Amino acid sequence: MKRIFLFFLLAYSFTFSSGQGFGAELLVGANFSQVDGDQLAGYDKLGLNAGLQINREINEKWEGAFEIRFSMKGARTVVTDPDLPPPLDLTLNYHYLEIPFLAKYVAVKNFTFYAGPSLGINVVNQRNENGRESEELELNTLELGLQLGGTYYLTDKVGLDLRHSYSLSSIRNVPIIVNGPTWFGRAGWYNRLFTIGINYRPSN
Predict the structure, then answer these.
(1) Pseudo-torsion of CA 21, 13, 159, 72, nearest 10°?
(2) Where are the domains of the chain?
């Protein structure tokens, strides 16, 4: 983790030393996540989402940006079945280092809208089932995702951010049996989450 924070600090320092239209924002928020395909519903897994965004102005309406984020994903549920005691208490902890590449539309006053692909690297793979910890079998190290959202800036420096993220490819390399229709014929496990956070611009 110390290396991660050091990398954030170096990227932040480079941004302000280079200047020339570059800017930066510090990002911190909470993930509300689930895993599509695990047969468990609900955005019940709470996790940290934090990082740094480096952006560059393209014109008056558009900016390009990339981010470095630490994101805690997964799922959590308690399933009670009178025919299968005791109840199932299951938590999936998947932590990722992510690099989203975003196109940002900044032409609406106080609002910024953005979207783009992201590449994630899994750094924590943990399955906790009724207190027994193990690793999720065949969890892929890399995740290709799509992120979209918007930021409302309360001041020149502080903004409220809402983001939706979804895996574009299955995060597990195992055969999946489905019992019903799927979107675009997709079968697998997919991280899906909403992130509510705060953006901070150290300077304008």
Answers:
(1) 130
(2) 27-200
**Who's near 181: CB < 8 A, 6+ residues apart?**
none
**Per-position DSSP letters for the chain, written without gaps between them:** -HHHHHHHHHHHHHHHHH-TTEEEEEEEEEEEEEEETSS--SS-EEEEEEEEEEEEE-SSSEEEEEEEEEEEEEEEEEE--TTS-S-EEEEEEEEEEEEEEEEEE--STTEEEEEEEEEEEEEEEEEEETTEEEPPTTB-SEEEEEEEEEEEESSSSEEEEEEEEEESS-SB-S----SS--GGG--S-EEEEEEEEEEE-S--
Residue 113's nearest CA partner among 146, 144, 147 is 147
- The answer to pTM > 0.90 is no
Query: In this predicted model, what pLDDT tens digit does every residue of 138-195 receive, in sequence order?
Result: 999 999 999 999 999 999 999 999 999 999 999 998 756 554 444 545 668 999 999 9
Report yes or no: 112 and 151 within 8 Å, Cβ to Cβ: yes
**Spatial contact of 161 and 198, defined as CB atoms under 8 Å apart:** yes
Residue of 81, 80, 156, 172 whose CA lies nearest to 122? 172
Q: Can you tell me the distance from the alpha carbon of 126 to that of 74, in angstroms, rounded to the nearest whole number?
A: 9
Fold assignment, 27-200: Porin (2.40.160)
